[in-house]
Structure prediction request, 231 residues.
Amino acid sequence: MSTFVKFTIDEIVCMSEEGRQLIEAAVENGIYIPNLCNYPGIPPKGSCRICTVEINGRHATACTTKVVEGMEIKNITPELEEFRKAVVEILFAEGNHLCPSCEKSGFCELQALAYRYRITVPGFPYMFPKRDVEAWHPKILKDHNRCILCKRCIRGIHNSEGKPIFDFGKRGDKLVINIDPDTSKNISDDLVQKAMDMCPVGAIIRKEIGFKVPIGERRYDIAPIGTEIEN
Ligand code: SF4
Prediction:
């Protein structure tokens, strides 16, 4: 039998099943904790740090923290929001994110967070890294310029034998996420679409379909990120 626990987020009393991932428990209570590498239904990673909150006075990532009775969580504070903004700015400065020419524009969570934090130009110098666009796969375009290495695709996209479609290549600051030519050989259109939807940016693009939803009518063109959750 599940046990329910009471906790607070920004002094709002919340209830959830004990041991539930804090980020999901917040959603159940109509509260959005900004995040990027987390994705419902796949194991959390805690790599982007955007969901950092303050729990009983200490910083922790909400995706890797489980709720327990009596937790006091601070989510929206000037300090935490400033930190999240800085992480988003770093991600923009570190890659080549050319939003106006991206098929994910309007569906991109990084772009949507930039809107949230009113970022027009990052506060860090652009690095303009030289990165490839891979077009060899018959169904997938992989744009390394836009990849933020969140690893959602590695954690969440597997073929019918349970083998990952995407994996790591190279190391250190050269780390890339590649398409595995063997496991992706017979990938279905549905799974390609799922990978594209799961990718928070425009690093995985399904070939041969574009502008199905017109610019201006896309998810974050219509409502800011998080508002679909908030009470
Ligand atoms: S391809 Fe997309 S989902 Fe995969 S690691 Fe890069 S940004 Fe994340």
Observations:
- DSSP finds six helices and ten strands in the chain.
- The chain has a mean pLDDT of 96.
- The first strand starts at residue 4 and ends at 9.
